[in-house]
Specification:
By secondary structure, this protein is mostly beta strands. 0% of the residues lie in helices and 49% in strands. The protein is built from no helices and 11 strands. The N and C termini lie far apart (40 Å).
């Protein structure tokens, strides 16, 4: 069993920054690729960013490129999402997820690649 607990969400003005964190326990974290997804009100959950376990290669959605950075700290079993230049359209609940073993980078933008999810943390960006 894997537990994922997100933190760091909140209310921020447009142009501001937030750093989300996800603390993981239960599975060997260092061998799990990790991802961030988000779900805005009335919309489908969408991919934001992922980081591969083997070499920490990252993969961002187009909406996140140049603004969001995913990173991991294997010593602390934590993955972070640094979000800069936030826009009102970034308002959503952000979810951390742990990928199933064996899924490569090409699959990490898809929800089927993940078998454990956190409860989410709310991010609200005001204009």
């Amino acid at each position: 069993q894997v537990q994922l607990v997100e933190s760091g969400g909140g209310l921020v003005q447009a142009g501001g920054s937030l750093r989300l964190s996800c603390a993981a326990s239960g599975r060997t974290f260092s061998s799990s690729s990790m991802g961030w997804f988000r779900q805005a009100p009335g919309k489908e959950r969408e991919f934001v960013a992922a980081i591969r376990w083997s070499d920490e290669t990252t993969y961002n959605a187009d909406s996140a490129k140049g603004r969001f950075t995913i990173s991991r700290d294997n010593a602390k079993n934590t993955v972070h999402l640094q979000m800069n230049s936030l826009k009102p359209e970034d308002t959503a609940v952000y979810y951390c997820a742990a990928a199933r073993p064996g899924y490569g980078l090409g699959h990490l933008s898809r929800q089927y690649a993940y078998d454990y999810w956190g409860q989410g943390t709310q991010v609200i960006v005001s204009s």
